[in-house]
Amino acid sequence: QMQLVESGGGLVQAGDSLRLSCAASGRSLKNYDMAWYRQAPGKEREFVAAVGWSGSSTSYADSVKARFTISKDNAKNTIYLQMNDLKPEDTAIYHCNAVGFDTWGPGTQVTVSS
Q1: Strand 108-113 relative to strand 10-13, pairing
Q2: Do the Cβ atoms of 7 and 105 come closer than 8 Å?
Q3: Residue 44 burial (10 A CB sphere; 0-12, 13-18, 19+)
Q4: For residue 46, what pLDDT is reported?
Q5: What pLDDT is stored for residue 1 in this prediction?
Q6: What is the DSSP secondary structure assignment for residue 75, as one 8-state letter?
Q7: Confidence (pLDDT) at 55
Q8: Residue-level pLDDT at 105
Q9: What is the mean pLDDT of each run of 10 residues along the chain (114 residues)?
Q10: Who's near 91: CB < 8 A, 6+ residues apart?
Q11: CA-to-CA distance for 79 and 50, rounded, in angstroms?
Q12: What is the 3 state secondary structure string of 24-74?
């Protein structure tokens, strides 16, 4: 069974950058599409970005397009989310997910101050 653990969150100022990591164990990621989601206090969980199994195809929510980049390193069994030009509205707990599976990490908190 796949287990996912996110890291890299923190408290930053608007305009700063962060890189989140999601390390998988138990299964190889090479055959899985992967995604990042986020959930802000009092809000529904929302899609952020996804990457195909090979790492060559990506998709993004409109709110993060051109600021965030998702990537996948199958050799390291890890996916990443490079977040640039962070905004206060990006504040949330960020979770990674194996697309199509109910497999989630505990999340990493990102807080962006204005």
Answers
A1: parallel
A2: no
A3: exposed
A4: 97
A5: 86
A6: T
A7: 84
A8: 86
A9: 95 98 94 96 96 93 97 95 98 95 93 96
A10: 40, 110, 111, 112
A11: 10
A12: EECCCHHHCCEEEEEECCCCCCEEEEEECCCCCCEEECCCCCCCEEEEEEC
* Contact yes or no for 14/88 (Cβ under 8 A): yes
Asked whether the beta carbons of 6 and 102 are under 8 A apart, the reply is no
Name the amino acid, one letter, at 88.
Answer: P
Whether the Cβ atoms of residue 13 and residue 113 lie closer than 8 Å to each other? yes
Pairing of strands 68-73, 58-60: unpaired
Token output for 38:
């986020």
pLDDT at residue number 66 = 94
Q: Contact at 8 Å (CB) between 36 and 48?
A: yes
Contacts of 97 (CB under 8 A, 6+ apart): 4, 34, 35, 36, 37, 103, 104, 105
